[in-house]
Every structure is written in structure tokens, then in C-alpha cells.
């Protein structure tokens, strides 16, 4: 059993291992770092036993520098085919490349896969791990994920989240609720009164924050959303499509007996991310409903495709590429209370700081939400 299991105790150093094993620091270093120079078998065994008892983890970045190896960053995303993650990845790769740092991109669809991916990533000893992932805040893997990342940082690595999960690591965040209130207000100001809302899972942080902002703005406008018009599109284009298709088949969208809003039907769809909005527009057309003409549609994120679809998508702009760049900057700089690129930072402890790359998201008005 490791002797250093109290998080208040400083991580064991190479000197601690050498002292406990009764060998020189040079011998301990050669044994632990796989040096080409031979280490006597008895000394090797003593060093390994001491390292295990002390729960010693080498400083990965220092090792890489000492060996002349190029440092690397591991980026974990939920779905590399999603334009949201593709744009974030582009920012990470660009910023890292400017510093001569290679980026390895891993895909993990959920909390279990994410924990497994983080454990594999720490074993490769990268300089940093950037997690732009599922955001499931109540996942049972949360405690194990935090413990793994704490050990990784104690060994000299840096962990950064893109979008905060209230874990003790830096996070690049955006004002989800502010953007959601703004897009909902635009829907109301454009003359729409009967919205359907496409959300994600209830324990998905961004979905929860955006849904709260949308419903708050609608409530202030005196609009009570029909509960049947709030559906789960799981932040996916295919699931967004399926959710709207099901609403159409159930007769909820178009005015008539059994339609939402006491038979009046839906006049708009507020999707809490862009890919759900794009899926929704495809589903509307499949039911001979023209998006942007019969039913207004909005998204959230401003992915590159949002301007290319027809009608072009009204959405909340998020600086996706800049978010990736800010995460790399955080990996490469020491912790302090300064913001990144002139942005603001929360009043949390510096070890758990948030880098707000955009405190007030912009609304991009396009053809999918004409004024009524």
C-alpha cells in the first residue's frame, strides 16, 4: 500500500524515492526512467519498491524535456464528426502547433469511456490533457476522474476542461444562460409565442443551463411552454431529427385537434445546439413544413455549417476555435488569476479558475427566424 495517500501531503519526489531505497538519485533516476545505462538488479528492485510505497509518479514533462522528446497534448472529445468538436479541435491543434506541440485526439462518447480515455492518456505522459466532452455532471465516474487527474497534475501534467464541470481544474467556459436568454428574447421579439424546445439530457450541464435561460426569458414574456413541446434531442442531429419527426407524427406541430398549445400548434423551435436545429429543419421538410416560413428555428453555437444550410440558421455565436486556443494557453502557462486574451475570470481559487472567452455571446440573425 502506498504510504502517501493523504492529498494534503506533497507528492513524493525522486529524492524521496532514492532516500528510501538507499541509492543515489542518479541510480533512482536511471531505474525509473528506463535509462540505457545498467542498474544492478538489487538496486532496481529497491527503487521500484520504494516508488510503489511512496506512490511516486515522475514529472512527465520534465522527463520529456530531459530525453529531448517533443511534448504533446491529448484532446478528448465526444464526437469528432460533430462540427462543434471539430471547430474546438481546430483551435487546439492550431495553438499547439504554434508552440511545436503535437496533439493526439481521442474520442469518448460518455463518462465511462471518458474515464478510460483519461487513464490511457495519463499513461502516455503528455504535457497537457484537454477535455471537451460529455459534461454529464452527475456521472458516477466523476470521483474517479477527479482522482486520476489530480495524480496526473501532481506528476507535472496540466488538465483543462472546455466548459466547466465544477471540478478543481481550470475550465474554458462560456455564458450559456446569457446566450439562451438572448435567443429566447429574440424569438419573442420576432413575434413567436408557441415554441417547441429541443434540449439535451437533464444531467448535461450545457443543456441544463441553456434550458434554464430560455425558460426564464419565456416566463418573463408571459409565455408558458406546453410541456409536450419540450423534447430531448440529445444534442445530436439524428436525435433532433427523430424528436421532431415524432412530434409531427403525434400531431403536435400543426394546428388541429391534439396539437400543442391547445390545438394552436407550434410556431417556432428553439434548439439548444445547432446540430439539433439542423436535424429539426430536415424533419420539418420531411413533413411538408417549410422551416423559416411556417415554423421559425433557432440554434446555439454557430457551427460553420449553420450559415450554409437553407434557410441559414439564426443562432447564438460561440467562439469555438478561440475556446480551443484558450485551453492550450492554459496548459502552457502557470496558474494565476489573470484572464486569457483579455477575457474575464471568476472569483474562484486560481486552481479552479474559469476562463470566460466570451461573457456575452452574440446573436446571429439569419433566415430561419423571420419577423412575423
Automatic annotation (TrEMBL):
Pfam assignment, any one: LacI
Gene Ontology terms for molecular function: DNA-binding transcription factor activity; transcription cis-regulatory region binding
Domain HTH lacI-type positions: 12-67
This protein's record includes keyword DNA-binding: yes
UniProt keywords, alphabetically: DNA-binding, Transcription, Transcription regulation
Protein name (database record): LacI family transcription regulator
Lineage, opening ranks: Bacteria, Bacillati, Actinomycetota, Actinomycetes, Bifidobacteriales
Amino acid at each position: 500500500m502506498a504510504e502517501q495517500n493523504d492529498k494534503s501531503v506533497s507528492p513524493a519526489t525522486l529524492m524521496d524515492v532514492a532516500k528510501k531505497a538507499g541509492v543515489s538519485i542518479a541510480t533512482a533516476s536511471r531505474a525509473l526512467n528506463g535509462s540505457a545505462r545498467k542498474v544492478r538488479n538489487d538496486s532496481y528492485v529497491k527503487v521500484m519498491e520504494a516508488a510503489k510505497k511512496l506512490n511516486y509518479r515522475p514529472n512527465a514533462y520534465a522527463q520529456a524535456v530531459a530525453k529531448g522528446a517533443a511534448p504533446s497534448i491529448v484532446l478528448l472529445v465526444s464526437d469528432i464528426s460533430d462540427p462543434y468538436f471539430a471547430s474546438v479541435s481546430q483551435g487546439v491543434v492550431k495553438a499547439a502547433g504554434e508552440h511545436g506541440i503535437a496533439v493526439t485526439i481521442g474520442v469518448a462518447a460518455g463518462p465511462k469511456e471518458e474515464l478510460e480515455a483519461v487513464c490511457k492518456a495519463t499513461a502516455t505522459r503528455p504535457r497537457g490533457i484537454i477535455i471537451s466532452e460529455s459534461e454529464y455532471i452527475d456521472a458516477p465516474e466523476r470521483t474517479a476522474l477527479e482522482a486520476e487527474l489530480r495524480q496526473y497534475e501532481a506528476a507535472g501534467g496540466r488538465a483543462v476542461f472546455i466548459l466547466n464541470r465544477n471540478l478543481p481544474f481550470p475550465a474554458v467556459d462560456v455564458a450559456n444562460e446569457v446566450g439562451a436568454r438572448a435567443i429566447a428574447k429574440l424569438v419573442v421579439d420576432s413575434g413567436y409565442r408557441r415554441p417547441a424546445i429541443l434540449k439535451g439530457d437533464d444531467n448535461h450541464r450545457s443543456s441544463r443551463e441553456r434550458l434554464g435561460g430560455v425558460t426564464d426569458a419565456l416566463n418573463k414574456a408571459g409565455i408558458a411552454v406546453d410541456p409536450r413541446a419540450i423534447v430531448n434531442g440529445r444534442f445530436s442531429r439524428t436525435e433532433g431529427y427523430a424528436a421532431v419527426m415524432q412530434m409531427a407524427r403525434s400531431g403536435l406541430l400543426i394546428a388541429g385537434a391534439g396539437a400543442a398549445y391547445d390545438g394552436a400548434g407550434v410556431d417556432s423551435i428553439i434548439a439548444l445546439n445547432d446540430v439539433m436545429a439542423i436535424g429539426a429543419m430536415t424533419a420539418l421538410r420531411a413533413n411538408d413544413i417549410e422551416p423559416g416560413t411556417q415554423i421559425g428555428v433557432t440554434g446555439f453555437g454557430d457551427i460553420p455549417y449553420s450559415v450554409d444550410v437553407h434557410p441559414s440558421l439564426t443562432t447564438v455565436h460561440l467562439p469555438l476555435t478561440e475556446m480551443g486556443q484558450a485551453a492550450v494557453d492554459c496548459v502552457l502557462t502557470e496558474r494565476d488569476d489573470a484572464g486569457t486574451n483579455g477575457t474575464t475570470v471568476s472569483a474562484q481559487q486560481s486552481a479552479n479558475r474559469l476562463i470566460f472567452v466570451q461573457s456575452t455571446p452574440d446573436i446571429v440573425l439569419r433566415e430561419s427566424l423571420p419577423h412575423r
